[in-house]
Amino acid sequence: MTKSKLDKIIHRFHNPKAAVAVKKKETLREYIIRYVGEIEIGKRLNIHKLRYGKSTVKNYRGFIVQFDEFCKARRRQFDFDDIDLGFYDNFVVFFSGKSYSINTIGRHVKELKIIMRAARDEGLHGNANIESRKFRVLTAEVENIYLSETELKAIAAVDLKGNRQMEIARDVFLMGCHTAQRYSDYSTINEGNIRKLDTGQTVIDLKQHKTANHVVIPARPEALAILAKYGNAMPKSYEQKVNRHIKEIAREAGIVEPVEIEYVENGEKKRRSVEKCELVKTHTARRSGTTNMYLAGIPTIAIMKIIGHKTEKEFMKYLKITEEETAIELMNHPYFSGK
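The chain above was modelled as a monomer; its predicted structure follows.
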């Protein structure tokens, strides 16, 4: 041992407070907790420099729980350098064993990749395994449905007098169908969003919460009637309750035709039949509004302006038109009609 090292040891022994403190490195789990916490309080913003929506925060909170469950099942704590293709395979198998849908598994992988990239940008690790093409975010075609104008009228006709919560859920959902907006936008429309044009026509003018896009929606008479019913301000609602109630209301409206859905069980893709009402949820409103406008012959570019989509690829994901509906539409084309 050199005299210099010996002097340092003696100095630390006699002067413990003067010893240089070594900063403890943040672990992956600690970083995940901090990252999600900062999203929740608005310290971290999304790519549009806006606060993350409640549903996104909820998803990240759920990711913490799932990550902890995975670590517990594997009987170890995974750190930044442990995230490799072996981890990825085990991660996917773990969730497949819980019969999670492909898109739910993909969402957890996506959240992990986002967090890993953020930590790397902050200099906490140099692991690039997540950039491998094999470390991919799984996706599958979702059995999303839309409701036709006839089905929407059936929902509107359901007698819900005496059940205010169900009535509010129905009216909030229908507002989404008439505006083709996200729940965070259509559930909060109020007097400040209603504007009369110089032409005398009424529009709903709003800035979308998720993207900050400014959209101007021609106000359908049905939408104005719902707003008038509640004093030109949508009543307070909760997405979880609307999702639960609207399924019951759709059932009462007779929307019970069988729909085949795909799901994963123990890593295997399977299919089963469910009643259509079971698939109705708040986001069905946006898809229904978009598809019904398209079927009514409104130009694609005009619909994109209303719903706030920038690309046709993004827009096409919202169209849920059956093969029969496509055939009926094409029968009116001169090529098929012979006119």
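Residues 18-23 have pLDDT under 50 and may be disordered.
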